[in-house]
Amino acid sequence: MLVAGAQPAAVLHAQRAPVLQQVAVPHAYYWREMYVPQVTSGPSAVTWSPDGADLIYSMQGTLWRQRIGADVAQQLTSGPGYDYQPDWSPDGRSVVFARYAHDAIELQRLDITSGTVTALTTNGAVNVDPRWSPDGTRIAFVSSAYNQRWHVFVLGADGGEPQRLTEDSDSHLPRYYYSRFDHYISPAWSPDGSEIVLVSNRGRIHGTGGFWRMAAKPGSPLREIRYEETTWKAHPDWSPDGRRIVYSSYLGRQWHQLWLTTADGGDPLPLTYGDFDATAPRWSHDGKRIAYISNESGNTSLWVIDVLGGRKQIVASWRRRYLGAVGTLRLQIVDPAGHQLAARISVTGPDGRGYAPDDAWRHADEAFDRAERPFEYSYFHSSGLSTLTVPAGQVQVELWHGPEYRVFRAGVSVPTGTTVTRRILLDRVDNLPARGWWSGDLHVHMNYGGAYRNTPRHLAFQARAEDLHVVEDLIVNKEQRIPDIAYFRPGGRPDPVSTDRLLLVHAQEFHTSVWGHMGLLGLTQYVMPDYAGYPNTPAASLYPHNAAIADLAHEQGGLAGYVHPFDTKPDPADTSQPLSYELPVDVALGKVDYLEVMGYSDHLITSEIWYRLLNCGFRLPAGAGTDAFPNFASLRGPPGLVRVFVKSGATLDHRRWLAGLKAGRTFVTNGPLLEFSLGGHEAGDEIRLPSGTHRLPARVGLRSNVPVDHLEIIGNGKVVATIPLAGDRTRASDSISIPVSGSGWYLVRAYSDRAEMPVLDLYPFASTGPVYVRVGEQPLRSPEDAAFFLRWIDRVEAATLASTGWNTPAERAAVLQAITQARDVFAANR
């Protein structure tokens, strides 16, 4: 038996950095997952043989060939990187594909007979969507090689210097999720090879754009044939008869399905139906069938549909023939009592690639340390028993079951053709529910346009693997659709998959790029509209502002909080950067019930703003939300990456848990576990003292499954005590005396100077909520911080006055009135 507690302390590494930094397009977590190919357990893209008998598809980061009607798949490539998006040449002799390796995606050509792979591009950019011309002499593809933006290029069949077809164009449009510069993606050839159809957002604000045609020559004019609000996945394909185009769209729906339109952009006809995604369509060469990818089962799968008749056939690879020597690894995870334990597992082969069971959802982190590994961290969730095929040799196994358990790491030797079984015991670091503390993630999006189709049952499975007790699934729009709105339960009841140890609750995120995003918890009714400030839509007005939305939540007995606040320091004096974030206005007006002190942001930067608000006398509880997209293959973090522990009693109850959050009985963390009391009081409590100077006993405890560099007591925004750390820097316990002479607040925080795997975050961090101290009748005041927020509110007012999108003068007046009231509150603080 392998025991987690036997592992040595982690070694410090350099900082993590995002993947594919050669693309200068905003919101990388969208195009990275929804456009750039990802490693999925099932198929992700497909191409037909010229005779229509075989398919070649990408699966698990390699290319596979399979005859339709057979159940055997033959592996065609095996790295050294991850291989995607195959396209079979018209003569049937070779396949062009995209290979991710060495921090770039380059085009490669596979000779099917010899198995030889030849590089076609070496520009160090992101090169995707390769498509052979019908005569086999050219390859159209998309690259970031020009100005780090998406453009269509054409390359000779043997490589050479690519020609850029599309022109760079500055739209000057107020796009939030997309670059100000137009993009051009997903090219497909006309049957005669004279034209290309592509997707572009030229002239459009929202979505990845509509369908355009152009001659396959550099600088040719584009003609828009149809506009839809697509989101990265349209991938049009021109029919062999030249009259139709098949594409993937969520037109009027919540999920992508296959649609047919004419080559001139006539009214579309749906080809498939269902509450799941059908994507990546490809016509057979005789025009009678279309192959595509579906996530109807949750995982991805490969299907073929008859265009006439609609008969569907799955192409499943029940047997696989591998290129290299492989073995089987069987993992069984148990807790100290010997019970099977769900967990997050990472398995890395001797080639540096990640491996997972065939039926698991593979995920990859969005950032990694290049000095530590060649690719981003790969993982999957397990019920506690997993079997996977791996390359023969030494593989590395790493397990995580939340911050209350030790991390397990070990190398396992897997000989060729054998099954190796390992039973792994995960030891506890602590048992917080036994003391009434329950962990929750306040910010999860069950489905948000990713490769997989998530369900409450599967999300609960992911949460159990992360040892999470409460999941707040924030239903939210993605452009005009709201993918999970059907799951909202009137009355705010937990989802039926909930148990006495796990609550899954469908809540809401309110979107506006102007005021900042808000989480709405404990709702009995979904708040509509779901967003504001979207230019060129009926929701272009900046009203309702966040204060009005918070009022609607409070009328239902719900909570309103600010989510993923800051990854860069807001500076009200820097007028070169926009600053319309409504947070200080709403805090001053008493509208904010919690702040995601930890979220998809920089925790120390966010804490600095939080401290300034606390210094102005506001009592703002600490929350935490990952902003997790657990149906993504490329993931910013699983549910529970950051979490809030709420002290709410011996049993798990959602209303009591939300009440504990609002009362500030919390601490937030991505790994370190903290204990803190001041004068016998815990987070959220108030200590009242008579006027004068006092000393209060403080008790600090730390237990962590990763090393920590700093353990500090913060008072009124300053470090008032540092707790020494020794040994492996994972444990500490100390009692000290804190001098107190004025009103204020105190908390404990712990953090590291750099990333520590397997915490998939910028750095380990934890913070308790504040203990408040009131000395005599002295209020807490900070003229410096009040002045900071007054300058901030001036910027919010300027943005309000500059907006022309109001529906009525009354909307503008309501926002300005709130700003004036907030300014008066901060002015009194000076």
Overview of the molecule:
The chain has eight helices and 56 strands. The protein has 830 residues and is mainly beta. It has a 15-stranded mixed beta sheet that branches. Strands 29, 30, 31, 33, 35, 36 and 45 form a seven-stranded mixed beta sheet that branches. It has a five-stranded mixed beta sheet with strand order 3-4-5-6-27, with no helix packed on it. The longest helix has 21 residues, at 809-829. Residues 1-13 have low confidence and may be disordered.
Write the layout of secondary structure elements.
Elements: E1 2-3, E2 17-18, H1 28-34, E3 43-48, E4 54-59, E5 62-67, E6 72-75, E7 82-88, E8 94-101, E9 104-111, E10 117-119, E11 127-132, E12 138-143, E13 151-156, E14 159-164, E15 184-189, E16 195-200, E17 209-215, E18 222-230, E19 237-238, E20 244-249, E21 257-262, E22 269-270, E23 278-283, E24 289-294, E25 301-306, E26 312-315, E27 319-321, E28 326-334, E29 343-348, E30 354-355, E31 363-365, E32 367-368, E33 378-382, E34 385-391, E35 393-400, E36 408-414, E37 419-425, E38 437-444, H2 456-465, E39 470-475, E40 503-510, E41 518-521, H3 546-555, E42 559-562, H4 583-588, E43 594-598, H5 603-615, E44 622-624, E45 634-635, E46 643-647, H6 654-662, E47 666-669, E48 673-678, E49 686-689, E50 694-703, E51 710-715, E52 718-722, E53 731-740, E54 744-751, E55 765-768, E56 771-775, H7 783-802, H8 809-829
Parallel strand pairs: 1-37, 6-27, 28-37, 31-45, 38-39, 39-40, 42-43, 43-44, 49-56
Antiparallel strand pairs: 2-32, 3-4, 4-5, 5-6, 7-8, 8-9, 9-10, 11-12, 12-13, 13-14, 15-16, 16-17, 17-18, 19-20, 20-21, 21-22, 23-24, 24-25, 25-26, 28-34, 29-30, 29-33, 29-35, 31-33, 35-36, 38-46, 40-41, 41-42, 46-47, 47-55, 48-50, 50-53, 51-52, 51-54, 54-55, 54-56
Helix pairs in contact: 7-8
